[in-house]
Structures are given as structure tokens and as C-alpha cells.
Amino acid sequence: MIHDCGSLLHITIDRNTELMDNTRVTNTLSELRLSAQQIDEFFATGWITAKALFNADEVAKIRSCFDDLERMAADLQVTGLHQGSHFVLGEKDRQKVIKRVVWAGGSQPYLLQIGADRRLTLPCSQLLGSDVLEQLLSQAHFKRPNDGVVFGWHQDIQHRDKGPGTWDDINGRGSFVQTLIVLDEMTADSGPLLFIPGSSRWGRVDFGAHEYDDPEYTPRTPPQFHDEDAVSIAAQPCDTLFFGPYTAHASFENTSQHYRRVLINGYASPGANHRVYPGEGSCREIVVD
Ligand SMILES: O=C(O)CCC(=O)C(=O)O
Which atom in ligand 1 lies closest to the alpha carbon of residue 178? Predict the structure, then answer.
């Protein structure tokens, strides 16, 4: 059940979805739950992968929302809010670049439906230890071939906790879970996600005041960080990653010939976030029952 401006949206669950660790299961209520081992893995290593969590039809519909967003971006000249979504634009070789679309669901209701889907929200409620979630992110990343879009090394907490009064670690374990649905094959040359295993146990470290859009930004790495520890994630469309706010991660330029799109949904423990995020209906409350 989702509370969104007073309306209730009922989520249907597909059956026979392949869930965590390649185990084919039926998505009954109990079987959507993460095992204790998966929860340990999330906190110890920093991420878990759910193979084929969504099906091909759903991913095709998500891609079609991305096509709409791309058409909207083509008509925009500058970064800003458009039909409920916040478009962050850039330029490379005098071509417009879509760096990201923040609260993509603001203009694409199907993406909000996916953001409220139990296959995402139930594991997140387990990881956060709360039946109520605040959805902070519904974000579209396109990474078109050679478009120059990079996400340098960072922890997501940098984007959640922006200084005094903006964030409280309510559950003492970071209070945030990021999910990332893979829409195109993630290969070594398509700008895949990179993770540092075990960085989830570092707590917050200093990767610098990280703003991807600041031309003055110079990467900084903490002493715990060693490039050679990075693990590159190879993933297929429909796979979904879950990772924590302290997990060090990055992704670099897509030098392949195909898009590398992902849909990100991110959830906070209620009471953790004290900022307003851009986008119509952002920071909605979802009750996982
Ligand atoms: O799309 C990507 O590869 C970037 C993901 C990322 O850095 C994030 O979700 O914080």
C-alpha cells in the first residue's frame, strides 16, 4: 500500500520471478523476503544482486518511459523541472547530454508504480527495519554511448546527508537503501557499476565535496580506498542491485555502442531525511504491509 497525496495504489505481484541468488521462487509474501544470509551480505559486503527480479515486459515498459523522458529532454534548453521531473542536462562535443532525470516518476506514473512494487519495497523494509519507507529517489540514468556521463567514486550518504539538520541516522545502520534496476546489459565497456567490497563497514569517509556537475570538482579518495579492490558488476536487463549508503561505488564513461540505462529507486527510514527533493510528489511515504 502506498500513501501518496491520500490515494491508495494496489500493487500486483508477478509470480515465478527469479529472486536473489538465482533461486527460482514464487513471489508469495514470505518468499519475497530476504534471508538472514542475504541481509548479512548486504551489510558486510555492501550490496546484493537480485537476478531477473523484474520481467522483460516490465523492463520494456520502463524503457518506454525512458524514451518519453529522452523526447522531453530533446525539447529542453536548460536544467530544470519539467512536467514533474527534474532534468539535469550537460553538454559534450556541443551535443546535449542527459546527466540524469531526478524524480523521473513525476512525469512517468509507471515508474512510480515500479517504485512502490513489493519486490523493491519489501527487501528495503527488511534492510531498514521499518514498514514505512520514505521514497527519496526515482531517478533515470541513460549513459548513452560516449556521452561523457560519469559518477566518480562516492558513498551515497554524501548525497543524503548534506550537513547539519539534513539527515539523522534513525536506525543506526545508515537509514537508506538504494536499488538499481538494470535496463540494458552492463558490460565492462558500458560504464558498469563498480563497488568496493566491505566499504559498507567504513562508515562515512571523505571522497571530497562531491558534485558531479561542478567543473572544479577534483576527485579525492580516503586512505581505506584502493582502486584494485574494485569489483565490476556484469548484469543483465531485469537484474536489480540493492546497496547501502556507505558502499563506495562509481561508474565511468560508456564506451560501448549501446545505451546503459538504469532506474534507481532509493528509500529512507522515516524521519531520517530533512530535505526537500526536486520533483512533484517526491519524498512520498510508502507503507509496506
Ligand atoms: O548510473 C550509475 O552508474 C551511477 C549509479 C550511482 O552512482 C548511484 O546510484 O549513486
Answer: 9
